[in-house]
Amino acid sequence: QDKVEAIKRDGGHLRYPLQQEMADKETIDISGDSVVILKHHGSYMQQDRSFQKTDKEAYRQSYQFMLRLKVPCGKMDAHTYKVLDDLSANYGQGDLRATTRQAWQLHGVKKHNLKHVIASIAKAGGSTLGGCGDINRNIMTPPAPLSDKAYQYAFQASNYLADLLKPSSPAFLELWLDGKKTGAVEYWNKDLIHGSTGKNHIPPLASNPEELEEMITRDRLKDQGTGIITGDPEEPLYGRTYLPRKFKMAVTVPGDNSVDIFIHDIGLVVIMDEAGENLMGYNVFVGGGMGRTHNKESTFAKVAEDLGYVPKEDIGEACKAILAAQRDHGNREVRANARLKYLVHTLGINNFRKLVEGYLGKSIQPSVPLPEWRMIDWLGWHEQGDGDLFLGINVEQGRVKDEGDFKLKTALRKIVDKYGLDTRLTGQQNMILCGIKPADKADIDSILKEHGIKELSEISPMVRNSMACPAFPLCGLAQSEAERAMPEFNERITALLDKMGLPGEYFITRITGCPNGCARPYMAELAFVGQGAAMYQVWLGGSPHQAGRTGIRFMDRMKTENLEATLEPIFYMWKTQRTTQMERFGDFCNRVGMEAIQKFSESYAAGTAFKDVKVEEFTAANKMQMMAPVPAEAGKRGTGTLTRASSGPRKQQIRVTDEIHQQLKAQAEQRGVAMSDLVEDILAKNLSL
User: Is pLDDT of 293 > 60?
Assistant: First the structure.
């Protein structure tokens, strides 16, 4: 049996040996066994690896702890955010980091301060329980605080499932709060009563906290005799050894892929009735995941598969059934193969569906057809639909800090203090300020400008579409730089594109320091995965909308100094062989395949791309088309409609170029209507019908 499994088995439901070692005030670190247990409480022990080879004593003294919070929907109320901001200044390294899963991380906490920091977060209505470990982790949703009912149901489901699937052991209370409940209601539970945007656009789940707790406890303990409930008195759902590996979930609406729906253990898609007014149920995807190991082909990145449709009244039991299937049948012998994706891959989706149906006690129906997915970053100013506005702010690699004239941390705190705004994190490590009154828009813009924060129009699209994990100096798994390398990579890639006549072009680019895939590199159009000091594995061909496929490994051990030489022939091939200017880089690489790209690169004469350069500028209109949000209608079941300006059957054909066709297709998808309806509408308006 895997060593971690033995530690969990003997850990007394997440207590030992951590409880004894945290009581030791003389030491600055904890044992490896305690590290395993501590992860389930939301923390990792780290060391500053910048000292590892240069100053052994400094390295020994550099033990510190990273905390990852549980932040369902990426949302945090103003009070909790201010507490977290103060804790980072007083007990951390002075900054905050937004993760790729819409959670906050606080770095640099010393062991003797750890209990105080965790307790302070809990007393403020937050938690770190569920941030890490072999349990269900933070549940993602689209970050846009829209009043649209489909989005509201996604928020509600995320908050409900976050509590339904949390560990039941009292160990968290015992270790960090002396066994006493704080009396504070976790803010996501408040949302289940009062509404996720401060207004109830959909019916609440309960009328008060006591009723809500009773309902969720009853739902968690519900036992149909199908094997979901373990019989363990402290952990009826998870059992003594919890899950074989971490477990990740997301909830979204049709069309909005701001959550990377295909990379989760469970991905839920809200299905509304034809009018878009009433929740009907959820399409369910299962078995996605990013982590892999270099040179170990038995590990791989995988996109989630279609499990089927579940009515709304069964979604809690369905998620419990999937979790129980992984709990009982996941690989506990080889940790590298322990994620749910390997179980789904081994059984096949049809057999896995049968396994889940056995736990659920009923059949899972075929999925409802969905529109095409779009990756939306939700940056800039938007209307919420209830009279208020929200603002998406680009946060490079998720690092909220003050550095020189750039004072993002100070600016955000000033705005939250002044206006009491809720905040939301995006799946791209950015931040959204919610519930802004239109009259306050100019002042908020002014505060950001005074603190050196660029307007959205000033931010390079390449920067806007890039992500990186923290990697060095604190991550113990990092093989190469990631967060600290991303700005240079973006600059060099942009300069190369400009030089070869592709100004304004961009694509989804990601860097990770190791193959575990925290920044989801295998879904990117272009990715660099750490494979040694200043060396990276190169991946190509992910979907520009993160939809339905991973990229493909193109080459190993690219040295940082060879970045331009590696990419020049690939970009030139894309420029000269793409079907239209709208064929995105990832789609092109996926279409032509790695073998063709490799052959072209080998025969390419360096410098060819810079001779007789023909400029093909990616226009502002194209950028807007790629980045524009899906409208609220995308949350409705079926397709949207336009009122026709004419009547009768359509018999006549009109021919357009491939480029115009692609633009019409994108507009039709964005508006959720048939392309023929859109064309008729455009023509009718221009002909004044």
Answer: yes
CB-count burial class (<10 Å; 0-12, 13-18, 19+) for 675:
middle
Cα dihedral angle (334, 339, 341, 343), rounded to 10 degrees? 50
**pLDDT, tens digit (0-9, with 9 covering 90-100), for 340-366:** 999 999 999 999 999 999 999 999 999
Mean pLDDT, the chain, whole residue set:
93
Report how far residue 237's alpha carbon sits from residue 153's, in angstroms, rounded to the nearest whole number. Answer: 25
CA distance 175 to 135: 18
**H or E stretch at 80:** helix 78-91
Looking at 501-545, list the stretches that DSSP marks H as alpha helix, in order from N- to C-terminal side: none
Q: Which residues of 214-246 are buried (b: 16+ CB within 10 A; e: fewer)?
A: ebbeeebeeeeebebbbeeebbbbbbebbbbbb
Cβ(426)–Cβ(392) below 8 Å: yes
- Nearest-CA neighbor of 151 among 141, 139, 138? 141
At 574 the three-state DSSP class reads: helix
Q: Which of 170, 232, 195 is nearest to 77 (CA)?
A: 195
Other C-beta atoms closer than 10 Å to the C-beta of 201 total 18
- Closest-CA residue to 570 (of 609, 543, 542): 609
The pLDDT of residue 1 is 64
The structure tokens listed for 464 are 């806007």
Question: Please, where are the H alpha helices in 222-339?
Answer: 315-329
Rg, Å, the chain Cα set:
25
Torsion sign, CA atoms 389, 394, 398, 400: negative
Residue 521 identity (one-letter amino acid): P
Res 670: pLDDT = 59
pLDDT in tens, 5-41: 999 999 999 999 999 999 999 999 999 999 999 999 9
Q: How far is C-alpha 320 from the geometric centre of its chain's CA atoms?
A: 22
**Residue appearing with tokens 């982790």:** 137
Q: What is the pTM of this model?
A: 0.91
Query: What's the rounded Cα separation, in Å, for the pair 339 and 327?
Result: 10
* pLDDT tens string 588-622: 999 999 999 999 999 999 999 999 999 997 765 56
